[in-house]
Amino acid sequence: PKYVYDFPEGNKDLKDLLGGKGANLAEMTNLGLPVPPGFTITTEACRHYLSHGRMPDGLDEEVAVHLTDLEVRMGKRLGEAADPLLVSVRSGARFSMPGMMETVLNIGLNDQSVLGLAKQAGNERFAWDSYRRLLQMFGRTVLGIDGERFEGALDALKGDREDVDLDVADLVRLVETFKGIVRDETGREFPADPREQMRLAVAAVFSSWNAPRAVLYRRQERIPSGLGTAVNVVAMVFGNMGHDSGTGVAFTRDPGTGLPGVYGDYLQNAQGEDVVAGIRNTVPLQDLEAIDPKSYRELLGIMATLETHYRDLCDIEFTIERGRLWMLQTRVGKRTPEAAFRIASQLVDEGLIDLDEAVRRVNGDQLVHLMFPRFSAGPGRRRLTTGMNASPGAATGRVVFSSARAVELAAGGEPVILVRRETNPDDLAGMIAAVGVLTSRGGKTSHAAVVARGMGKTCVCGAEELDVDVHAGHFTAPGGVVVNEGDVVSIDGGDGAVYLGEVPVVPSPVARYFEDGTAGSELVAAVDRLMRHADSVRRLDVRANADTPEDAARARRFGARGIGLCRTEHMFLGDRRRLVEDLILASAEEERQAALDALEPLQTADFTGLFAAMEGLPVTIRLIDPPLHEFLPDLTELSVKVALAGSAAPERDRRLLGAVRRLHEQNPMLGLRGVRLGLAVPGLFAMQVRAIATAARHSADPHAEIMIPLVGAVQELEIVRDEAARILAETGVDARIGTMIEVPRAALTSAQIAEAAEFFSFGTNDLTQMTWGFSRDDVESAFFGRYLDLGVFGVSPFESLDREGVGRLMRIAVEEGRRTRPDLKLGICGEHGGDPDSVHFCHEIGLDYVSCSPFRVPVARLEAARAAL
Ligand code: ADP
Ligand code: MG
Ligand code: MG
């Protein structure tokens, strides 16, 4: 293969091979912009080097040929004593990893060529400054010497002077000191041979792909670890030749707000790395207009050219050598979520892109960011600890440790933060009442995290440094800080920070816009414009998972076209728990029927509210799903209570304890739940179906869909379906009957199951857990961190759909289900329904809709459009 490309041979689309920096240097060269000549060694050579521990055959020769070309073009030889060519050796991967890998400048200098450089430039100081920079960068990067050693020596020499105040004699001394450090640390001389310098630098840049900080960065940014970096060898241009020289960085518009204008920093008499290192204070780019008007105008012209060419915000690095401008880097620049929406919309106005492209340029994660309130930055914040950023937002409130207390205080208008070791379904009321949830245990898919995200509630979970003592009513933070119930804390679900006391927040105008259509800022106008277009191009419908009329109404305002999942189990908690207990304790038929009869009107009222909120749109109601014992008291607590009371224990408690023991399961997730429960407890499902039918009869334009959970065999479904159909026929109500696909067997026998189901809804939480054979509640904190480190998966399969495994089961069900029943309706109602990548997958396999929590509905709308484009 060809391992080396001269800049004119590449272009911006060759990023895989040439890296982002190399591809864009090539592009700029071909645009006729002033780029110093050079060449790029491919990522393929890097991958070979990293896997074999040596350079691929033929690479040295190929590099030699391109170097000779470069020398001919420049009329100088690399490191030649009289008039040396110098080069930089620069990393540059497919995805930008700012500052994570290495670059060495001024390759080619040694004791002889430094004199030639001084003479040719007529500037001794500049030459020695360049030499000391080479020793410093080469020493640290290539030879692995602690950078502190060089900096220490430099600082000692400088005293309270600036680096530009060092004179020739100082710099000559510094070079000697640096060479001494190299000798000291490596036991050999600094390599004087320019070609050896270059070879070693190339190898060091390749190796820097696996530097610990690069590895960490990639994991965070989800950049694949096998790509490798390219190396760019670029003829040096010098910003450190005096006051008519300098170096800078710039953006073609403001990456923070998206506003057009001149944004950048400039540093006179300096080389590139000084700007980032903060050696001296930079000046705003505007000041360049006074310093060097000609270069300034040329730079603005080039920035305009780049924006038009890339049709996007670009960032650039440039250097001015004695009044001559050189472009050293460009790329489509990173930006804040706010800027992303505004720029996309502005570029449409400017005629550079169309609305399709504008929608492609933004994403659901950015949108989520814009929807949450933020803590305003400010001094005096006291950070207690940092946990996992489970659900974004900024929440401040009084600490409470129980659901009941949360409800109580919140009822009085007090914002509260519910703090628990971990949450369970019983905490739901408290979570709803609280403005934020903080736990010391559990990962991003723990109960607290999942439920909070679903509700759009701020949550920091797994803050392991906190010692939460619910019974004593306090938690202890590092440093022994004790926070009592009633104390105020602030939690940032965006970065996981936990603060003591109140931190001021600013509300999100974007959330307000979704909530009630409030227009206003340019940002909101941009979001509105892009969302409207998104809705016009997407094929997937978007529904919401909502259990209450309030949630349903909100989801509808957020753009949901129906409910894809109403979980009825939440309707059995709270005050109604006693009725459920009665149902379980019932020994005679009449007792059971009495309990069911008491529940039915309550259920009917629940469904009536939902049909009203979703008038004219489908409402999918899942019949009761979780194991019955979840509605019963805790086994240990009840045993203790009964034991302590002895013979005085109330009869009801004794019977309850018997029932709890009887119903206790080793693996509740694989136990008596879903359709199994419906078949085991006669009358339960029938009661729910009757409630649905009654509610539908009394509603305007209801579209009920009855969904049976946890079906694994068509026989299970048939029994329930037949009974439900009978009730519907008796009441004269029209409703669809369908099933969840969440047990692998259901996916595998979907051809049969479709005979009895009018719709499938993929319950991908359970389907993931059963396909992998791990329990979501247990594995996250136990070993997911390790699995992510080891690369078993790049992201938790509970966060983003596992396309190959779980996704394959879904494909089978889609294909075989539709073969049986061509008009089978297909949707998804697991957590994944609001995850961007999973939405794309659902589009690809041809589902009809995704259903997600109300707060994620806008995200799903946007991502469904991006999937369709
Ligand atoms: P990074 O990816 O960390 O920005 P770069 O490879 O871009 O690293 O280089 C670091 C600094 O050195 C940048 O400021 C860049 O502009 C500057 N630089 C790189 N090559 C040259 C060169 N040939 N002449 C002058 N400055 C250079
Ligand atoms: Mg750079
Ligand atoms: Mg399920």
Structure description:
This protein is of the alpha/beta class and 869 residues long. The chain is 46% helix and 18% strand. It has 4 domains: 232 residues, Dna Ligase, domain 1; 87 residues, ATP-grasp fold, B domain (D-amino Acid Aminotransferase, Chain A, domain 1, 2-Layer Sandwich); 134 residues, Glucose Oxidase, domain 1, CATH 3.50.30; 294 residues, Phosphoenolpyruvate-binding domains (TIM Barrel), CATH 3.20.20. It has 35 helices and 33 strands. A hairpin with a 4-residue loop joins β23 and β24. The protein is elongated. 50% of the residues are buried. The site of one magnesium ion has 2 residues, from loops. One magnesium ion binds next to loops.
Taken from the alpha-carbon principal axes, the silhouette is: elongated
- Main sheet makeup: 8 strands, mixed
Number of helices: 35
Strand order of the largest sheet: 14-24-23-16-17-18-19-15
**CATH architecture grouping of the largest domain:** Alpha-Beta Barrel
Which stretches are poorly predicted, pLDDT < 50 over at least 5 residues?
Answer: none
Name the quaternary structure.
single chain
Q: Any ligands, ions or cofactors bound here, and which?
A: adenosine-5'-diphosphate, magnesium ion
| CATH class descriptor of the largest domain | Alpha Beta
Q: Tell me the count of domains.
A: 4
Fraction of residues in H or I helices: 40-55%
* SSE-based structural type: alpha/beta
What is the name of the CATH superfamily of the largest domain?
Phosphoenolpyruvate-binding domains
Spatial gap, N to C terminus? 35 Å
Give Rg in angstroms: 33 Å
Overall average residue pLDDT: 92
How many beta strands in the DSSP annotation? 33
The CATH topology of the largest domain is given as TIM Barrel
Percent of sequence in beta strands? 15-25%
